[in-house]
Design brief:
By secondary structure, the chain is an alpha/beta fold. 30% of the residues lie in helices and 22% in strands. The structure holds zinc ion (ZN).
């Protein structure tokens, strides 16, 4: 058992920090949280051996999530996702995993890998302790139509209800955590129009149906107005990007309780000063659409990518600091469906947390500077 003391707790649920706090952990999970002196029943020498760790008056908050990344997409001299061989990509992945941990990101949702098994293999290596990194929740390769977004960087091409059902079943058999579909064209796929729809609503419905049968959610890459609506009506869990979201799209998202992952940060990789869809994202936020933080870019390319994302979300939507933090913690865990174990610092959940010098509820730049990072109560930075 470990007992952390001398810190202020940002649980991810409350508007204010809990000062003079302590937190007891065992086997990776939080057993109990309190304030003031640690009770004798915990510290007395006759109880099981316990390690007391002082956090020197600093602040702790839940480890952050990146709900939209591509851990193995390698960028070198531009944005050719297929550049580099397997060895280069593997080195890049390992650097990304370490960079995420250093940045205080303890959970990532990988939305489109190159090849079939890259991220599934990574998950196995993480579980076996061969490598270190954040928890991974992965879609494996994305599904796309013939000539559609990502067809040249390892996405699985399928057309029509029969083929999309088979492709979804195959991915579930391979062990993916969710399914990612390209509902519209994408900027990096030659010949694609980002405003044009790709899968039809009927095809996305078939994918959602197959995925939901096995308790898997579907995330839809969607820029175009109609593609967003097709995906929402088909029942996807989240719209990724949502660039040309219109009023009807917002109403549909509200009706279907669909999440939005705006991915503002990817523009930083291309020196884009302002994300193209700040008006659309603000409209969604004002309408009460649930938002989760995803960057669409890895931290070796844009350092502190998640810290960037939450700052931009607050800046362009008017979210409070707590709400912005929640997009990368509590909300993110809800979107992934892992909120009974992760996302907030409460008894029963895993002790995945970061230690900051400043209070992020007052200064949203604080998550740029994690001093320490813990996974399951074990220090990783
Ligand atoms: Zn993406």
């Amino acid at each position: 058992m470990k007992c952390f003391k001398d810190f202020s707790l940002i649980s991810g649920c409350d508007e204010t920090a809990l000062t003079d706090a302590w937190m007891l952990t065992d086997q990776g999970r939080i057993l109990e949280i309190g304030t003031g002196e640690i009770p004798e029943r915990i510290t007395q020498p006759l109880s099981a051996s316990i390690e007391i760790i002082s956090l020197d008056g600093k602040y702790i908050m839940p480890g952050m999530f990146d709900c939209h990344t591509h851990i193995g997409m390698y960028m070198q001299e531009g944005f050719n996702l297929m550049e580099g061989d397997d060895t280069e990509r593997t080195v890049f992945i390992l650097k990304n995993l370490q960079a995420y941990l250093n940045d205080g990101v303890t959970f990532i949702r990988d939305l489109g890998a190159i090849g079939n098994t890259q991220t599934l293999t990574l998950k196995k290596l993480l579980a076996a302790g061969v490598i270190e990194g954040p928890h991974i929740y992965t879609a494996g390769p994305m599904l796309c139509v013939t000539g559609g977004h990502g067809h040249y960087f390892g996405s699985r091409v399928c057309d029509g209800v029969v083929e999309v059902k088979k492709a979804t079943r195959q991915l579930v058999q391979d062990g993916v955590d969710l399914i990612k579909v390209a509902a519209s064209g994408g900027g990096f796929t030659k010949g694609n129009d980002v405003r044009a729809s790709q899968f039809d609503q009927e095809e996305i419905e078939a994918i959602v149906h197959e995925a939901n049968k096995r308790q898997k959610k579907v995330a839809a890459h969607a820029h175009g107005t109609e593609a967003i609506k097709n995906a929402v009506r088909a029942g996807v869990a989240s719209i990724e990007h949502g660039t040309f979201l219109d009023d009807e799209g917002v109403s549909l998202m509200s009706e279907h309780n669909t999440w939005l992952v705006p991915t503002f940060t990817i523009g930083k990789a291309f020196n884009q000063p302002v994300p193209p869809h700040i008006k659309e994202v603000k409209k969604a936020y004002d309408a009460g659409i649930r938002i989760a933080a995803g960057t669409d870019i890895t931290p070796t390319i844009v350092p502190h990518n998640v810290a960037w994302e939450i700052q931009e979300l607050a800046k362009y939507t008017g979210m409070s600091n707590l709400e912005a933090i929640q997009t990368a913690t509590r909300n993110a865990a809800q979107l992934l469906g892992v909120d009974t174990d992760y996302g907030t610092l409460e008894a029963g959940k895993y002790a995945d947390f970061i230690v900051l010098n400043e209070n992020p509820l007052e200064d949203l730049s604080a998550p740029w500077r994690p001093q320490q990072v813990y996974l399951g109560g074990v220090r990783k930075k």
